[in-house]
Amino acid sequence: METFLPISYLNDFVFCPYSIYLHQVFDNNKEVVYTAKPQQRGKTAHQIIDTQNKPKNNILKGAYVLSNKLGVYGKIDTLYTKKQKLVESKFQIKTIYRGYLYQLWAQYFALTEMGFSIKELNFFSMRERQTIPIKIPGQVEFDELRAHIKKIARFNFESEINVNPVKCQHCIYAALCDKTNLDHVYA
Fold first, then answer.
1. 157-166 per-position pLDDT tens digit
2. What is the per-residue pLDDT across 52-71, written as a single tens digit (0 to 9) for each?
3. What domains, with CATH codes, occur in the chain?
4. Which of 72, 105, 135, 159 has the maximal Cβ count within 10 Å?
5. How many Å apart are CA 156 and CA 43, to the nearest integer?
6. Residue 18 burial (CB < 10 Å; 0-12/13-18/19+)?
């Protein structure tokens, strides 16, 4: 049986591989037990996006996508089918991190594999109401993304984790993490 990774892991792994493990451990608990305010705010924003589906207006929101070639699945934020535009929304974007790009690229490749034509990619920062255009990925980006996915699939979660104090202080799982004793900003 083939295992598919959630598209959300692509960004989580870049931030901290251990966060994927912590998410899985606490997944069956009430979310308030293991989530921080930024994650709760993001989830609320995504619920709003997901419930505004307008198929009559050629807008798909919160639709599931799957890529057999990449071995990933997940949900898109917004696809304007007539405009052939895919938009990934974040509550606030200060920097376009590589993990953000991996998520958007995976969505793009999944949609094209599913038969959709996509000519435009954007991030949307909800707080600033700012659209940030992103170049359509090609073979080089596909190969980089595929290598990243393989790295996640082969990662040994029992191995030593490199602790980054700056990231740890802003990690939504910091209160649950046994790899550091740093205070975090969401305490």
1. 777 777 777 7
2. 555 567 899 999 999 999 99
3. 5-176 (3.90.320.10)
4. 72
5. 28
6. buried
